[in-house]
UniProtKB/TrEMBL annotation:
GO biological process, one term: acetoin catabolic process
UniProt keyword Iron present: no
Any one GO MF annotation of this record: histone deacetylase activity
UniProt-listed InterPro entries: AcuC (IPR003085), HDACs (IPR000286), His_deacetylse_dom (IPR023801), His_deacetylse_dom_sf (IPR037138), Ureohydrolase_dom_sf (IPR023696)
Biological source species: Pseudonocardia sulfidoxydans NBRC 16205
Protein name in UniProt: Acetoin utilization protein AcuC
Lineage: Bacteria, Bacillati, Actinomycetota, Actinomycetes, Pseudonocardiales
Domain Histone deacetylase: 15-306
Keyword Iron among record annotations: no
UniProt KW keywords: Acetoin catabolism
Family: Belongs to the histone deacetylase family.
Source domain of life: Bacteria
Pathway: Ketone degradation; acetoin degradation
Length: 381
């Protein structure tokens, strides 16, 4: 899903969520041939009825009217995280429309669809939060549920907790939400504890994996592999929805995990495998956070696009000279020269020698696995 209109979602000139990351990703993907002969689908803005699947009518009114009211309208709008900007409703609705179009194409028979402008996972029913005005992830998932889907898995690999999506489906057993994120004691929004499991009929269908600052590729992948595949295999989703924020990288200025672009590429490839083996190949892919705008996001999400399209980009592939020249004209920071950080994303599976991430693995498995009929202490489950 792509339209230049996605670049209009610019909260302010100096806001960390800068749409240049989207433009640079598309330029890099084109430069490396990832998008050759690929039809880009241009979405329409989500309608009020579509947005009201997860947002209140009063909130939509506030978003639409906010640019005309200098005193502000509440609902989390007009803060440093979510400043008011002209065209806020229109640009936010367009991103939600992109994720809706991706969901529709999957419902119509496509196996995979991707909206890198999406992944605005913090927006709540009645307020903006964490750079997110409308929660396109929840809008797309709710649309699928309304079409009769009964099991949707949402796996969020952004460094921040996927709180808005979790809140939207906290009591709904049709949606399994899994969030891998930096520990809530150390990073906004301060939620996403292993004890947050869902409520009522949804008990056990919210899964949170809080990772200590400094967790690297090996630790992150060890935790993911010890928890996520077993849950997806047990749940058997009809569609896997992935929020693929690139802010887990060691270079990201807003968080403290230590992943590499190579590790992120490994994550995307593993989720593709899990979509194939647990969800019948149905994979709806969304972007998310990522604030190393020049060095990380374009490379990480070009790898993501390559994985979605089965056009995997080799890690050592050089960056096109014209892309480097363009990016260099926009930043004073040194730029990488290829698609790798030179890191080895291999890891030792859980169940052998002790690793620093193991207490988190054990805590999460013991909290969640029994609710799905799985043995929390058996590495084979």
């Amino acid at each position: 899903m792509w339209t230049p209109g996605f670049l209009d979602y610019q909260l302010s000139e100096d806001h960390p969520l800068n749409p240049v990351r989207l433009d640079l990703t598309m330029r890099l993907a084109r430069g490396l041939g990832v998008l050759d002969d690929v039809d880009l689908l241009e979405p329409e803005p989500a309608t009020d009825d579509e947005l009201e699947r997860v947002h209140s009518p009063s909130y939509l009114t506030a978003v639409r009217s906010a640019p005309e009211l200098p005193s502000g309208v509440g609902h989390g709008l007009g803060t440093s995280d979510n400043p008011i900007f002209f065209g806020m409703h229109e640009s936010s609705a367009l991103i939600a429309g992109g994720s809706l179009l991706a969901a529709r194409r999957i419902a119509e028979g496509a196996d995979r669809a991707v909206n890198i402008a999406g992944g605005l996972h913090h927006a709540m029913r009645d307020r903006a939060a964490g750079f997110c005005v409308y929660n396109d992830c929840a809008v797309a998932i709710q649309w699928l549920l309304d079409q009769g889907y009964e099991r949707i898995a949402y796996v969020d690999v952004d460094v921040h907790h996927g709180d808005g999506v979790q809140a939207a489906f906290y009591d709904d057993p049709r949606v399994l939400t899994v969030s891998m994120h930096q520990h809530p004691l150390t990073l906004w929004p301060g939620t996403g504890w292993a004890s947050e499991l869902g409520s009522g009929d949804g008990a056990g269908y919210a899964v949170n994996v809080p990772l200590a600052p400094g967790t690297d590729d090996a630790g992150w992948l060890r935790a993911f592999e010890a928890i996520v595949p077993s849950l997806l295999t047990s749940f058997r989703p009809q569609v896997l929805v992935s929020e693929c924020g690139a802010d887990t990288h060691s270079d990201d200025p807003l968080a403290n995990l230590e992943l590499s672009v190579d590790g992120q590429r490994a994550i995307y490839r593993r989720m593709r495998e899990l979509a194939d083996t647990t969800a019948g190949g149905k994979w709806l892919v969304l972007g998310g956070g990522g604030y190393s705008l020049f060095r990380v996001v374009p490379r990480s999400w070009t790898h993501l696009l390559g994985v979605v399209l089965d056009r995997d980009v080799e890690p050592g592939r050089p960056l096109p000279a014209d892309w480097i020249a363009h990016a260099a004209s926009l930043t004073g920071r040194p730029l990488p020269t290829d698609m790798s950080d030179g890191a080895d994303p291999s890891f030792e599976p859980w169940g052998g020698d002790f690793a620093a991430v193991d207490p988190t693995i054990v805590e999460v498995r013991r909290a969640v696995f029994p609710l799905h009929g799985l043995d929390p202490d058996d590495p084979r489950d």
